[in-house]
């Protein structure tokens, strides 16, 4: 029988519980609304994100990069562009080869858009091909090219090579493969046509960079289609190449990433369903279990997406147009979502698993959430702070894109943590308190989590560390460390302009042939000359430099003269112009006043500024491409654009040779910097090589200090910090070894390996260390504590690792090499992080715990982890 007193106390208790429930609902609703409002705000900001193009953001801040940026800002670009057409056949030095070349020339001329013109000069025609000398000889002999047979074409070609100047002969043979037979009966299975186009009207300067790229791509695509449709002799094919065709649609990288992430999310949905599956018991209904599983999966995915939106929105605020602390989004920045998905899944699985465990123990929804946040939350705080600080050490990296990657990763990690600690518990509370009130919360099903496959496997794996920790460590540290050092030595540092080009395009196939089989790779190397440039000394040194350049290997020449645009070259063209009766009178007078000689040098006291002023008046468009003034009107800069063909492999030697050729200019006191896309790529490789180890040591060192201080202050066990970080170093070494063994180079994208290894390894090891401290209070032996840790936290880690590896395995299907490689590297990093956290770390903890208790027999366990947090 219930007494009034008892009834009153029951009513008081019920009323208190009701008030707590309403207060919890109000707090949860507020947190939920704040999270959604912030997500909407950051989503709106994300629409303002700016994207970098080319090497922007990838190259370190050095003279070559600054020179390239200055040239883009201060000089007009030449409207001339070059297309290359690769013709393949049985023997292109014959009648069919000549027919193919002429047919392609006709197709190109007929397919040109109205605003595009062929660009010919006094030195060369608008279209040059490997049989141009034969074509000229046949015209001189008044022989119809269509009547020439193989013997005639072959003989004329051989005679032309012997009779023409060496420079012209070299130019002609550069249009044939390096393995071509050029004896008395020349043979080759491929040949090149060079098509020079004037695009001033078709691609006006007032267009944005993106619009100009789009316009060039449209023009080149139209010509390429016409070439492909040309009727050629049997067995002949022709493909067109240009940088625009090679790069293709500038949005294709982002488009494919969206598709890949869509597929990854589908895989994640399925695998999270396996991880979150609520196993019904005898007589239990399966539908509520399915509904609960889907709800947890969706909540995890929504939270991960929200974290990515927060990162993008905050990145816009930190970027250009707002705080300008970081640069625009680039190809490396696109990798940050990979990290956030991996960490978000890890955070969610641990939080959800612990919450279910507390519900199964009989706690109310509110109490279970509080306990889950207090226990797992401690590990998540440590993981968030340490990984964020580790990434922020990247601000010292010389590669700007990797600096931005570190900042955005830190922002994303903190965003993910905040959402996991607020949005997820708030949503879970609002949903589960109703189920609790209706009595439909599947507590018993949650209690069967330890009977599942992954927790059971992890518990058995823990037996290895518990039974033979020394042997386990000897194998993993000894063999793993040796393999890691070997992998580090095998690792190649490489960056190529084709890294973000799809592998299966026709332009990529042509590029491979051009770089592998031909001695020429058309490229432009700019030389920026700054200072008091309008002096006789600088002008005459420029003349000497141009003479020196004609002897530099990989500098293209025509008629013995280096193909280089400069004020001297412009003077030559205007004074010897073939398309007018006489040179401009004003220019002739200025040249005479300066004492311009036949060798183009001027008198020591000449007024070079007046000569350059006249150039700007007579030919303003051409002069603006090679001369620039300062605000006071004085000539401050000269640009020299040199046609080179060093390619990626020869850029280092080209730089050394250019330094020697530019010595006359340097001796005058002006500043001289040679720059190009290839040179900047070389700088990127150098910066990555020099910074990788330093960045790694700084990141691991920062994490080590934080954990040592944290465990020393919180648990009075600073050695736990060292033990927790040590396996992370192995993760990095093992990943390097796997990269070296599978031929994956270190580039701007894969250079994020340090971040991926730390981002995956540190949270994994922190989860294990924190759970082990808790379980050691509950179990009498170290072995039992290790098994319990692996059954609970190890099972969650395995679920997160398998989900991430399977999901990002999708990246290995990418047609872009860096993302294919990133998929493999992510699998390596996450897989090794799981191995280190579930095999290496438990062995270390086992030895540490035995040593610690042997040397401190009177240890008070409650000083390590407060028991009141884990008992009712």
Query: Kindly, what is the distance between the CA atoms of the first and last residues, rounded to a whole number of angstroms?
Result: 29 Å
Count of helical segments?
Answer: 29
The low-confidence runs, each spanning 5 or more residues with pLDDT under 50, are: 1-13, 859-872
Number of strands: 12
Quick summary of this structure?
The protein is an alpha+beta fold and 872 residues long.
Notes on the protein architecture:
- By secondary structure, the protein is α+β, with helices and mostly antiparallel strands.
- It has three domains: 19-48 and 251-498 and 682-869, Multidrug efflux transporter AcrB transmembrane domain (Multidrug efflux transporter AcrB transmembrane fold, Up-down Bundle); 77-247, no CATH class; 532-669, no CATH class.
- The protein contains 29 helices and twelve strands.
- The strands form three sheets. Strands 1, 2, 3, 4 and 5 form a five-stranded antiparallel beta sheet that branches. Strands 6, 9, 10, 11 and 12 form a five-stranded antiparallel beta sheet that branches.
- A hairpin with a 2-residue loop joins strand 7 and strand 8 (561-562).
- Helix 27 runs antiparallel to helix 28 and helix 28 (782-808) packs antiparallel against helix 29 (817-855).
- The longest helix has 43 residues, at 4-46.
- The relative contact order is 0.11.
- The model is unreliable at 1-13 and 859-872 (pLDDT under 50).
Topology readout:
Layout lengths: L3 H43 L16 H12 L5 E9 L6 H17 L5 E2 L8 E3 L2 H9 L9 H14 L2 H8 L16 E9 L10 H20 L8 E5 L1 H5 L4 H25 L9 H33 L17 H25 L4 H28 L7 H39 L4 H4 L6 H15 L1 H22 L15 H12 L5 E8 L5 H14 L7 E2 L2 E2 L1 E2 L1 H9 L9 H9 L14 H11 L1 H4 L3 E3 L5 E10 L6 H11 L1 H4 L4 E5 L1 H38 L4 H23 L11 H26 L3 H27 L8 H39 L17
Helix pairs in contact: 1-10, 1-13, 3-7, 4-5, 9-10, 9-28, 10-11, 10-13, 11-12, 11-13, 11-27, 11-28, 12-13, 12-25, 12-27, 15-28, 15-29, 16-26, 16-29, 20-21, 25-26, 25-27, 26-27, 26-29, 27-28, 27-29, 28-29
């Amino acid at each position: 029988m219930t007494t009034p007193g008892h009834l009153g106390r029951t009513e008081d208790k019920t009323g208190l519980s009701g008030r707590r429930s309403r207060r919890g609902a109000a707090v949860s609703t507020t947190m939920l609304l704040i999270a959604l409002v912030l997500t909407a705000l950051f989503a709106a900001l994300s629409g303002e994100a700016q994207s970098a193009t080319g090497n922007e953001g990838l190259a370190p801040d050095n003279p070559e990069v600054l020179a390239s940026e200055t040239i883009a800002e201060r000089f007009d670009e030449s409207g001339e562009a070059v297309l290359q057409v690769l013709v393949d056949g049985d023997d292109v030095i014959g009648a069919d080869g000549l027919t193919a070349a002429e047919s392609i020339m006709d197709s190109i001329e007929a397919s040109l858009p109205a605003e595009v013109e062929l660009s010919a000069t006094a030195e060369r025609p608008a279209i040059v091909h490997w049989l141009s000398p034969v074509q000229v000889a046949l015209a001189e002999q008044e022989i119809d090219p269509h009547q020439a047979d193989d013997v005639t074409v072959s003989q004329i070609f051989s005679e032309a090579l012997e009779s023409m100047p060496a420079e012209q002969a070299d130019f002609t043979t550069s249009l044939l493969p390096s393995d071509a037979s050029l004896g008395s009966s020349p043979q080759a299975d491929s040949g090149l046509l060079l098509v020079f186009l004037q695009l001033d009207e078709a691609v006006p300067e007032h267009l944005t960079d993106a619009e100009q790229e789009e316009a060039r791509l449209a023009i080149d695509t139209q010509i390429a289609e016409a070439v492909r449709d040309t009727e050629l002799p049997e067995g002949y094919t022709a493909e067109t190449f240009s940088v625009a065709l090679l790069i293709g649609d500038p949005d294709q990288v982002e488009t494919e990433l969206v598709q890949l992430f869509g597929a990854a999310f589908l895989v994640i949905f399925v695998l999270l369903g396996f991880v979150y599956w609520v196993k019904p018991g005898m007589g239990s209904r399966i539908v509520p279990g399915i509904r609960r599983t889907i709800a947890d999966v969706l909540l995890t995915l929504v939270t991960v997406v929200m974290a990515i939106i927060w990162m993008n929105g905050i990145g816009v605020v930190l970027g250009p147009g707002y705080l300008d602390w970081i640069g625009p989004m680039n190809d490396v920045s696109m990798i940050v979502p990979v990290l956030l998905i991996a960490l978000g899944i890890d955070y969610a699985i641990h939080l959800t698993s612990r919450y279910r465990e507390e519900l199964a123990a009989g706690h109310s929804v509110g109490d279970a959430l509080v306990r889950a946040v207090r226990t797992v939350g401690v590990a998540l705080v440590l993981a968030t702070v340490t990984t964020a600080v580790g990434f922020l050490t990247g601000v010292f990296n010389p590669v700007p894109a990797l600096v931005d990657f570190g900042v955005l990763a830190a922002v994303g990690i903190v965003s993910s943590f905040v959402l996991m600690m607020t949005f997820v518990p708030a949503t879970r509370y609002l949903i589960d308190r109703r189920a609790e009130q209706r009595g439909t919360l599947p507590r018993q099903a949650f209690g069967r989590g330890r009977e599942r496959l992954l927790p059971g496997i992890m518990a058995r794996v823990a037996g290895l560390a518990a039974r033979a920790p020394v042997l386990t460590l000897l194998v993993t540290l000894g063999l793993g460390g040796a393999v890691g050092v070997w992998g580090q030595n095998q690792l190649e540092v490489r960056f190529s302009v084709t890294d973000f080009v799809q592998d299966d395009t026709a332009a990529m196939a042509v590029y491979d042939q051009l770089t592998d089989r031909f001695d020429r790779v058309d490229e432009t190397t700019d030389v920026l000359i700054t200072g008091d440039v309008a002096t006789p000394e600088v002008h005459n040194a420029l003349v000497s430099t141009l003479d020196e350049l004609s002897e530099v290997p990989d500098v293209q020449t025509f008629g013995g003269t280096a193909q280089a645009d400069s004020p001297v070259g412009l003077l030559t063209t205007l004074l010897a112009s073939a398309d007018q009766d006489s040179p401009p009178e004003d220019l002739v007078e200025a040249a005479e006043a300066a004492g311009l000689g036949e060798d183009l040098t001027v008198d020591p006291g000449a007024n070079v500024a007046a000569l350059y002023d006249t150039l700007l008046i007579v030919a303003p468009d051409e002069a603006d491409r090679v001369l620039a003034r300062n605000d006071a009107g004085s000539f401050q800069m000269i640009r020299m654009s040199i046609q080179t063909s060093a390619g990626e492999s020869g850029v280092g030697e080209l730089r050394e040779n250019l330094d020697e050729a530019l010595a006359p200019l340097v001796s005058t006191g002006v500043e001289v910097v040679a720059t190009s896309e290839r040179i900047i790529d070389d700088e990127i490789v150098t910066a990555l090589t020099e910074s990788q180890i330093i960045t790694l040591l700084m990141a691991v060192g920062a994490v080590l200090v934080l954990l040592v201080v944290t465990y020393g202050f919180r648990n009075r066990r600073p050695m736990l910090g060292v033990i927790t970080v040590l396996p992370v170093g192995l993760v990095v070494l093992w990943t390097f070894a796997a990269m070296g063994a599978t031929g994956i180079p270190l580039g701007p994208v894969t250079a994020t390996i340090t971040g991926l290894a730390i981002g995956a390894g540190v949270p994994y090891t922190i989860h294990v260390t924190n759970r082990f401290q808790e379980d050691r209070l509950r179990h009498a032996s170290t072995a039992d504590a290790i098994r319990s840790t692996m059954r609970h936290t190890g099972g969650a880690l395995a679920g997160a690792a398998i989900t991430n590896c399977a999901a990002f395995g999708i990246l290995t299907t990418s047609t872009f090499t860096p993302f294919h490689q990133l998929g493999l590297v992510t699998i390596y990093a996450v897989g090794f992080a799981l191995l280190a956290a579930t095999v290496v770390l438990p062995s270390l903890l086992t030895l540490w715990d035995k040593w610690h208790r042997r040397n401190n027999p009177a240890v008070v366990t409650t000083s390590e982890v407060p028991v009141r947090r884990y008992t009712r």
